[in-house]
Amino acid sequence: MREMINMVVVLTLLSVFSGGLLAAVRTGTKDKIEQQVLKFQKAPAIKQILSDVSNDPLQDRFKIMDNDQELTFFVGKHDGKADAITFETSGKGFSGDIGLMVGINIESDEIIGVCVTTHSETPGLGSKAKDDPKFVSQFAGMAIDKNFAIKKNGGEIDVMSGATVTSVGVSLAAQKAQEIYKRLKPEIEKQTAQLAN
Amino acid sequence: MGDYFVLAISCIFVNNILLAQFLGNCPFLGTSKKMETATGMAMAVVFVLVLAGVITWITDTYLLKPLNIEFLRTLSFILIIASLVQFVEMFLKKSMPALYAGLGIFLPLITTNCAVMGVCLININEEYTFMQSVVSSFSYAVGFGLALVLFAGIRERIIIARVPKPLQDTSIGLVTAGMIALSFFAFKGMV
Amino acid sequence: MAQSMVKEFTKGLWAELPPFRLVLGLCPVLAVTKSVENGIGMGIATTFVLVCSNLLVSLLRNIIPAKVRIACFIVIIATFVTVVELVMQAYTYPLFLKLGIFIPLIVVNCIVLGRAEAFASKNSPIFAIADGLGMGIGFTLSLGALGAVRECFGNGTILGNPVFGSDFQPFTFMVEAPGAFVCLGLMLCLMNLIGKK
Fold first, then answer.
1. Which of A100, B53, C54, C88 is the most exposed place for a label (fewest CB within 10 A)?
2. What pTM, to 2 d.p., does this model score?
3. How far, in Å, CA of B171 to CA of B169, rounded?
4. Which of helix, strand or coil describes residue A95?
């Protein structure tokens, strides 16, 4: 019996210690982590797409609940007018998901540009999606109601040679962005207008 | 239904837990010298992995996420797995002695098998639904078993072969594993 | 005293060099050694957990009841792993992304639990630290060496610096899964060869 009590006491104390320590570390690092996620995952892509804006899109952001998913939109201003947004979607690539940041001009409904954020594609082949400017620049300037599928599937996107699956992944992510944008447009416009004021 | 099939194929072959994701390599090398132990280990892993996948998914979705304490995930998952293994061991000993005799010695080893913990974490990271988690846990475990049994078959033959001395045992085992991984590489891009 | 401490420290560097001699904790060894940076980062994270858990286990070795000792060790190890996870996320986010799932998986690394059970629970804190540090550094160096070989042939670089000149065709096999197994197998063979003499 004594042994039982001893075991329970030690285990409880240990758990309390561990819970306390973790909670403390968690509180200490929480804000830093959020910043890091923005800085390393999203910032380079956003900067590339919204290169000529007058504000900091990382600061001017809002969130919309889409079904169960929370999407973060980053707003860019040109000449004081908030007319550009970017958000991230994903598509299935050769090995795992490909993250794609998509920038859209909400006044003309045109794609400003897209940029691959995360991928785990084969080095030298699929990884070109990130480095090869020719492939992703195809999207820039296209109207939002164009077909973003690859040419073989009846769309307008040329595939990268040697990396068809990756190209399809990127095109899928772009199509997803298209759907989300069409579905959420009223909400996006409302939130953007609020931010601009 | 089709989606589950694709998921299963991808988990068994394309993203094979041992050969593409590098999880669970300790038992892979440790228990593959004899076909008998390899099949025993494979069965035990299937059994525990499915249970662990289900329980950790439920814990994460209905306990950790609502309470916003996801940072305790690592801690709670390992405790769940460790106690699950203990529980399964006791249960089998009492109610199914025949099965226990077969799997018994492998069960304690599973606690530190990173394949189990790894699959539970993958299920959460990939944001699988409940059914998807069940399918993926089962298929990853089958993939583990498949690779292990294949490997054990080859290793039994290698014992007969004359291998240069410094290459013997684990060393040649790893090179062989590399060759099997190379053949599994052909599945990449299939799904 | 000082002499035996040195002995506990150095055994981890050669005689019981973790991934090669003990053939334990192979998963991270194979998975994260695509580059030197990843390998060393993983090694340092593991070393931290190893030293902290060894210290705490050794301090508590007379309090922890024998029957629940494994459970206690697991709680202790998992706590420190989570600390590492949070700290890495906050300060070295890109590395954290690359190592991914293998950071939480330090918790099931057989080396950590193995040292707690085989050494720290039977020895005084100072020795436990020396043992943990030795094993950790041995592990880090091995990961770094394997990472160097794979990065060098697989990508033509070491720590991101090209070593072969511009017309070198990367031997992509080395950074993919099969290369990891073959490379580790051959290094083990090399160690056996040297050890013989």
1. C88
2. 0.78
3. 6
4. coil
A22/C68 Cβ within 8 A = no
Cβ-defined contact of B171 to C188 (cutoff 8 Å):
yes
A95 vs B188: CB contact, 8 Å cut-off? yes
Find the residue in C nearest to A29 (Cα).
Answer: C90
Length of chain C: 197
A94 touches B at CB < 8 Å: yes
DSSP B63-106: IIHHHT-GGGHHHHHHHHHHHHHHHHHHHHHHH-HHHHHHHGGG
Q: Number of residue pairs across A and C with CB atoms under 8 Å? A: 65
Q: B188 to chain A, minimum CA–CA distance in Å?
A: 7
Does A165 contact B189 at a Cβ distance shorter than 8 Å? Answer: yes
Q: At what angle do helices C110-118 and C69-91 cross, to 10 degrees?
A: 130
In chain B, beta strands by DSSP E: none
Q: How confident is the model at residue A126 (pLDDT cuts 50, 70, 90)?
A: low
Q: How many domains does chain B have?
A: 1
Backbone angles phi, psi at A123, to 5 degrees: -60, 135
B71 interfacial to chain A (CB closer than 8 Å): yes
Range of the domain at B175: 2-187
Complete DSSP assignment for B97-155: HHHHHHHGGGHHHHTT-HHHHHHHHHHHHTT--HHHHHHHHHHHHHHHHHHHHHHHHHH
**Residue type, position B148, single letter:** L
The token pair that represents C89 in the structure block? 């996320």
Assess contact for B52 and B80: CB atoms under 8 A: yes
The 8-class DSSP code of residue B16 comes to: -
Burial A101-122 (b: 16+ CB within 10 A, else e): bbbbbbeeebbbbbbbbbbebb
- d(CA C63, CA C51) in angstroms, rounded, equals 19
pLDDT tens digits for B32-81?
888 888 888 888 888 889 999 999 999 999 998 888 788 888 889 998 99
